[in-house]
Amino acid sequence: MCRDQVPSGEVIGLIVGVPKEVKNWEGRVAITPAGVRQMTADGHTVVVETTAGEASAIPDEQYVAAGAEIAAAAEDVWTRAEMVLKVKEPVPDEYRYLRPGLVLFTYLHLASSRELTDVVAASGCVAIGYETVQLSDGSLPLLIPMSEVAGRLAVLDGNHYLSRYYKGRGTLLSGVPGVPPATVVIIGAGVVGQNAARMAVGVGADVKILDNDARKLRYIDDVFHGNIITYMSSRMAIEDLCCQADLVIGAVLVPGAAAPKLVPEQVVAQMNYGAVIVDVAVDQGGCVETVRPTTHSDPVYVLHDVIHYGVTNMPAAVPRTSTWALTNATLKYACAIADKGWRKACRDSVALKRGLQLVSGKCVYPAVAETFGMEYTEPDAVL
Q1: Reduced to 3 states, what is the DSSP secondary structure of residue 258?
Q2: Average of pLDDT values for 362-370?
Q3: Residue 283 catalytic?
Q4: What is the span of the domain harbouring residue 62?
Q5: Which pLDDT score, from 0 to 100, does residue 86 have?
Q6: Number of domains in the chain
Q7: 44, 157, 283, 308: which is the annotated catalytic residue?
Q8: Within 10 Å of residue 1's Cβ, how many Cβ atoms?
Q9: Closest to 364 measured CA to CA, from 97, 92, 129
Q10: What is the pLDDT of residues 177-223, one digit of tens each?
């Protein structure tokens, strides 16, 4: 019996499944042993696929010691589970496991994929996206930790591909005495942009950042004591700065919606030979017109003599750090869903209700509905 069907006051445990991530080079896992301990103490059963935590340096033995059951195969996890915790969106090999009544709690990024949206809708499952859980102040608590990681990695990866070995400009971000540093242009001054700026300033780069929110620019100016040049975003400013840049970092976010294309192809074609673009917004379609999704095993391609990096799961490069950072944020919401059932958990938490995207085939997230021309249903109608 699903928890949402249990008479009021009666308590039953939920079966929570944690499959091993199968996206290219995805080493994160959706729960830590500490999370298992908490859920099992609350009366739930946690089933973890064998070696799911291996890349995050969490062996099966640690999960067992915390009270988890270890399943030999993904199918065993998915078919037993009433709620599945993941890190990344389902990939085609996992589509067959989606079913009515299953609660899927993970990063979804539906606005970037019509195929995935249609599959999840057709499955009849309840899909709650980490990236759209939103507090009353507008912050995205389950996106912030991975945005922090991705922002910092964007500078490290950009620096890596600036090497002449990868056909980059051969520019050292910091420069050396007598030789100026590289110019890093960051489009977007949110969490990703702020963390990219922190890393770039830290190594001594010449950093310029754009945003259309003057408050964010003032914050950047205050925090970095004027060591970063801020610009109000405009087409002209983006074009001028990108053409000066050694490294461009796309850090634009519209919660739950496709990223706007702020850097058109004609601007990319005018950029410096061997410049690098790292578009962190690629999860939501990217803010650079010429960027397409890539993988950790094949991360870059060259177009118009500019190196493009479009890996859609950047934090997977540092899975141990990322797993702990992510699960520190997601656990309380996952526990609320398990303890109360998804309906009551969403009624009790406006933030979690905003995470609802698809419920039994109905689209309950406005940005996804608008992106694909789907009929929109108010979340309260399914609660």
Answers
A1: coil
A2: 97
A3: yes
A4: 3-132+318-382
A5: 98
A6: 2
A7: 283
A8: 9
A9: 129
A10: 999 999 999 999 999 999 999 999 999 999 999 999 999 999 999 99
Q: Which amino acid is present at 328? A: N
Catalytic residue among 44, 109, 157, 211: 109
Average pLDDT along the chain: 96
Query: Are 158 and 108 found together in one domain?
Result: no
Beta carbons of 130 and 330 less than 8 angstroms apart: yes
298 is catalytic: no
Place of tokens 């009270």: 67
Query: Are 208 and 99 members of one domain?
Result: no
How does residue 121 score in pLDDT terms, banded at 50, 70 and 90?
Answer: very high
**pLDDT given at position 167:** 93
Query: 0.85 exceeded by the pTM?
Result: yes
In this structure, are 191 and 307 located in the same domain?
Answer: yes
Helix-, strand-, coil-residue percentages of the chain, each rounded to 5: 40, 20, 40
Residue 313's pLDDT is what?
95
Whether 288 and 217 share a structural domain: yes
| Residue 10 pLDDT exceeds 90 | no
CA gap 154, 143 in Å, rounded? 16
- pLDDT value, residue 3: 53
pLDDT in tens, 274-287: 999 999 999 999 99
Q: 380: which residues sit within 8 A by CB, 6+ positions away?
A: none
Domain membership flag for residue 139: no
138 in any annotated domain: no
Q: Are residues 125 and 165 in the same domain?
A: no
In DSSP notation, 150-180 reads HHHHHHHHHHHHTSGGGTS----TT-BTTBP
* Beta carbons within 8 Å of 65's beta carbon, 6+ residues apart: 33
Name the burial class of residue 321, with classes exposed (0-12), middle (13-18) and buried (19+) by CB atoms within 10 angstroms of its CB. middle
User: Helices marked H in 51-107 — which ranges?
Assistant: 60-66, 74-80
Tell me whether residue 137 is in a domain: no
8 pLDDT higher than 70: no
- Can you point out the beta strands (E) in 243-304? 247-250, 276-279, 300-303
Specify the CATH number for the domain of residue 94: 3.40.50.720
